[in-house]
Write a structure and sequence with these properties.
alpha+beta; 45% helix
Length: 220
């Protein structure tokens, strides 16, 4: 084991720590940039990039090093796109040896899609359930700001709208119809909101365990 690798191995617990604290939509990668062909020393939540331990350094990391490695300790909030077309926000911390040479990079890649789903769901509910705020303003009646609505109200409204659109009482729906509803709610980002699984289970007259099972099916 080289001195650089031994030095970088001390940061592996930090990779685990950050992955646990920041959550599953944050990919944490530790690179050994002195070994570019097999630079990935540790990686967690790698669904964002699909990379594995032993993988090569990316052009993105190489460019960050070239632009900032000589005069910065870290860079934050770069926006990028993975090979699987996932938009993410990336930050990089440069790890230096005793000679002040950059030998490693600790990257945090944050999947932005869950946050976009929440925004899309809020705007959808505001426009289709509450009406177009611009039209109300034109008539001089009232103004609606969807971001001022309690998040619980957005959840309930989205669930009620999707279920009612089926035109079938939940107790008469079959499994396929309920899975279709879960899929639509998932696409709207409803399940990113606290308490959504419990509320959907109640309105669909089923158990939370069943909703989690349906979620696994649609997310595949």
């Amino acid at each position: 084991m080289s001195n650089n690798q031994s030095f970088l191995n001390k940061y592996i617990p930090l990779v685990d720590f950050l992955a646990h604290v920041l959550g599953e939509n944050n990919e944490i990668i530790l690179h050994d940039v002195t070994n570019p062909e097999q630079s990935i020393v540790a990686i967690r939540n790698n669904y964002i990039s699909g990379r594995e331990i032993g993988g090569p350094v990316t052009d993105f990391v190489t460019q960050i090093l070239k632009d900032h490695g000589d005069n910065a300790d870290f860079v934050t909030n770069y926006e990028a796109i993975s090979k699987s077309k996932i938009r993410y926000q990336s930050s990089a911390y440069f790890i230096r040896n005793e000679s002040n040479e950059v030998i490693g990079v600790l990257c945090i890649n944050t999947d932005l899609q869950p946050y976009q789903n929440i925004m899309d769901a809020a705007h959808y509910v505001a426009r289709h359930l509450l009406g177009d705020p611009k039209k109300h303003n034109a008539l001089g009646s009232f103004k609606v700001d969807p971001l001022n609505l309690p998040i619980e109200d957005l959840t309930l409204s989205s669930i009620a709208r999707v279920i009612s659109a089926k035109g079938i009482p939940p107790e008469r729906m079959n499994q396929e119809e309920k899975i279709e509803i879960v899929n639509e709610l998932n696409n709207l980002g409803v399940f990113l909101l606290k308490g959504a699984v419990s509320e959907v289970a109640e309105q669909l007259k089923t158990s939370e365990a069943t909703i989690y099972r349906y979620l696994k099916i649609v997310q595949k």
